[in-house]
Structures are given as C-alpha cells and as structure tokens.
C-alpha cells in the first residue's frame, strides 16, 4: 500500500515558489554569459590552429597546426607585450595591496564616525567609474598643452611652482606612461580594496589592545604587535589569490590611455590581441595569443587557489 506523502507547509511552498522566481531572473544573465563567454571558446581554440578566413568559415578554413604559435614567437611585439604585462600587473597587484592595507589602518584610527564614513564614500567613488570616463578626465588633467591656457591642471601646478621647467607628457612618453598607469589604477581601487581589511580589523579581539595598553604599548606598537598580526592571514590570502591576475594588466585602462608613441612601455598582451584581430584582421594569430594567455591564466589561478587552500585554509568549493 502506497504511503501518503507528508504535506508541505506553507513556508516551504512559498520558499520553492520564490526560488523559481530567482532562477527565472537569472535566466537572461546566464544566457548572455553562455552566448558571449562560453559558446565562443571552441571556435576560438579551433581558430588558433587554422588560417581562418571569414569567407570560408571555421569548416572551410585551412588547418595549419602550430604555425600560428611559431609566428607568434617570431613576432617582434610579443616579448615587449609580455614584459609590459608582467611589469604593470605585478606593480598594480603590489601597489593595490599595500595602499589598501595602509588606508585601512589609517581609517581604523579615525574615531569620528561621520568623518570616517565621508572619507570611505569619497574614496569608494572612483572604483565605480569606468575607465572610459576616467581616461577622458585624466587626459585633460595631465595634458601638457600646446599653450599655457590649454595646459592640464597638474602640469599647470608643476610649471607655476617651478618644480619643472617644461610640462611633462605623462601619457605621451615611455618614461612616464607606465608609472602613470600604475599610480592611476592604485588611486582608483585602493578605497574599495580596503573593505576586506576593514572587515578583518573588526574581527580582532579588543582585549588584545587593552592588554597591550596595560603593558605600556602606544598606538604605533599596538599596530605593529596586534593589528598587523591580526590581519596578516587576510593579507597573505589576498596576495595568493592575486597570482591569477599576473597576466591581466588592465585592457580597458590601457586601451583608453595609450597611443603608438608608448607601445614600447604600454603595449600589453590584451592590446596586442586587439590590434592583431580587430585592426589587422589576423584572427588566427590573435586567437593563438588569447589561447596561450588563457592557458597560463588558468594554471596561475588553480595554483593560487591550491596555495590558498594549503596555507590559508581558503577553499572555493
């Protein structure tokens, strides 16, 4: 005899109905993700081993094996782009980490809550602006200008205070472009990046500060012996997880700021792929570059998470 099923409560039925609505809401984003991120992967991999011609398509284009990768190695722009990517990415990772930790420590010392919230809001704002907007602002702000009246704000200050004799081409010379990109990225992100460290600071036991104060430690020694050890695991974790971004130097930022005059110091793998594929129509070569970068990034991400799991106890799944 068949047993009757246990009647579901109204709360359980309402919960299942709500979950169906949530899944329905996610359908469109997941579909967009599948079309633009998942579906092109097999085509891109196939294109890397072909002499792809749009008129013939993927099935009609000639298979050339590893010739695209051999051309890539012989390409004079490949090594400079790889070097620039590594240098810019490593400096960005280091600068964002150090600046976020220092800012979180300084913000933690503020006792006035309204002032603290105001500073946090102001420093968070640049993070939510796209590089398309910020690039336009930076070009005007850093412009050397052809005349004194058209000179950017920063160059105007530097020239009028006598710090420099002639205006500096921040975005137009190889000597200054890389530093400008790194500093501007740190400025954009340090406020938002400090959130995780501010959260870590709230988890430190207040009695540790009380014990340090009883032992005669001032604010500086409390920071050295209590605060920094308390957030050290989080700093180590964020450093390990950032390994996967070593080959991501920021396409959107550099693409909106660079020019042919600074290719030697500012051209990265992503901009090289864009120029090869979109400007020069070398689709197979650009796909080969993207495939190599994807494989290397995947290895770095997996390595980073393995290290994080082993030494910091952090697991994604």
What is the total tally of β strands?
2
Biggest sheet statistics = 2 strands, antiparallel
CATH topology of the domain at 66-127 and 189-311: MetI-like fold
CATH homologous superfamily of the domain at 66-127 and 189-311 - what is it?
Answer: MetI-like
What's the helix count? 16
Which segments are poorly predicted (pLDDT under 50) over 5 or more consecutive residues? none
Give helix and strand order, one letter per element, not per position: HHEHEHHHHHHHHHHHHH
- Note the overall shape: globular
CATH architecture designation of the domain at 66-127 and 189-311:
Orthogonal Bundle
Q: Which helices and strands appear, and what pairs or packs with what?
A:
Elements: H1 10-38, H2 40-48, E1 50-51, H3 57-60, E2 62-63, H4 67-74, H5 78-108, H6 113-124, H7 131-142, H8 153-160, H9 174-193, H10 195-202, H11 206-214, H12 219-241, H13 251-257, H14 263-266, H15 269-279, H16 283-311
Antiparallel strand pairs: 1-2
Helix pairs in contact: 2-16, 4-16, 5-9, 5-10, 5-12, 6-9, 7-13, 10-12, 11-12, 12-16, 15-16
């Amino acid at each position: 005899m068949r047993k009757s099923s246990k009647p579901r409560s109204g709360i359980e039925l309402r919960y299942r109905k709500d979950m169906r609505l949530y899944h329905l809401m996610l359908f469109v984003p997941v579909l967009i993700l599948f079309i633009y991120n998942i579906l092109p992967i097999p085509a891109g991999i196939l294109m890397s081993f072909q002499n792809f011609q749009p008129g013939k398509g993927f099935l009609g284009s000639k298979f050339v094996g590893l010739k695209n990768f051999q051309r890539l190695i012989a390409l004079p722009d490949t090594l400079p782009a790889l070097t620039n990517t590594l240098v810019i990415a490593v400096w960005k990772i280091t600068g964002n980490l150090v600046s976020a930790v220092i800012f979180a420590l300084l913000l933690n010392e503020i006792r006035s809550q309204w002032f603290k919230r105001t500073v946090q809001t102001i420093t968070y704002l640049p993070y939510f602006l796209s590089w398309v907007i910020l690039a336009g602002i930076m070009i005007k702000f850093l412009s050397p200008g052809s005349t004194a009246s058209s000179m950017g704000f920063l160059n105007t200050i530097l020239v009028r205070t006598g710090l420099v004799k002639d205006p500096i081409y921040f975005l137009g010379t190889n000597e200054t472009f890389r530093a400008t990109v790194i500093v501007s990225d740190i400025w954009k992100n340090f406020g938002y990046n400090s959130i995780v460290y501010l959260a870590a600071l709230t988890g430190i036991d207040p009695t540790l500060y009380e014990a340090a104060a009883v032992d005669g430690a001032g604010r500086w020694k409390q920071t050295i012996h209590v605060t920094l050890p308390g957030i050290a695991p989080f700093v180590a974790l964020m450093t390990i997880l950032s390994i996967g971004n070593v080959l991501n130097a920021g396409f959107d930022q550099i693409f909106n700021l660079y020019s042919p005059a600074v290719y030697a110091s500012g051209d990265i793998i992503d901009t090289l792929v864009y120029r090869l594929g979109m400007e020069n129509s070398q689709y197979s070569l650009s796909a080969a570059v993207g495939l190599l970068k994807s494989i290397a990034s995947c290895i770095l991400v997996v390595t980073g998470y393995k290290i994080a799991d082993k030494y910091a106890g952090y697991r994604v799944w």
